[in-house]
Predict the 3D structure of the following.
Amino acid sequence: MPALVCALAFSGASSSAQAQAAHAPGEAVYAKYCASCHDQVDARIPTRASLTQMSPARILRTLDFGLMMSIASPIQRDDREAVANFLGKGADDTKPLASAFCKPADRKIMSAGARESWSGWSPDSANTRYQPSRSAGLKAADLGKLELKWAFGFAGDVTAFAAPTIVNGTMFVGSAGGTVQALDAKSGCLYWTYQANGPVRAAMGVSSDGARISLVFRIKTVGSIRSMRAPAHPHGRSEWSRTRRRG
Ligand code: HEC
């Protein structure tokens, strides 16, 4: 008798495992296309546990337009959705809280002097990445006394890579999720955000025709370069974009 009980229990367990496998194609897609990198420990690769904190929609965007676009190219759309739903346990990316935005008493966008600027990759064309003491408002002797003044989290992201660009006291920075944000460099309050269709990987360039300032940035992997007005606008607005043809 005990043998029969055992046999029944065994066959029940195996059929439920089969049913689960049939209903978890996302797990199979993960094992085939993702596990070789995301299951191993490497400082550059987000762990599987950190991917589960993202929302399915955010993971799908990474596969369709983002950093994993080349890896996902052989994967059918249904399987991309399946792996995104299998991995993503996080809530959908939320909009910034109302309290994150600048208040009327805060200084206006780009209202500080040109001295408070750090244009893209390096403030000078010699690429020294050097900021003179007058612009930085710091002396070498002050460096040991620096303290954290404010912090800003990129909603839904597990990596950050683009260096910020600062124009007249306003910081423009892109994120892995493709959001460009305009922040007051002094207080960290948010003026506006703009959603691009791919990760903004590097510092934005700044061009000015005297009357207005535009930000130029490259959307990595989509191969697109976009110019955006950076005005005293409630939202950033894209002016033009060029997409490089592949091959
Ligand atoms: C060849 C190794 C490799 C494979 C295979 C791979 N990834 Fe990644 N993945 C990476 C690395 C490296 C990063 C970090 C990239 C960076 O920050 O530049 C990353 C980052 C990510 C991110 C976060 C990106 C962001 O937008 O912040 C997601 C989500 C992700 N991978 C999902 C997947 C999924 C889903 C699969 C399988 C379909 C997959 N990856 C397969 C190496 C890999």
Observations:
- The first helix runs from residue 2 to 22.
- The two ends are 69 Å apart (CA to CA).
- The chain has seven helices and eight strands.
- The pocket of heme C is lined by residues 33-34, 36-38, 44-46, 51, 54, 59, 62-63, 66-68, 71-72, 83, 157-159, 176, 199 (CB under 6 Å).
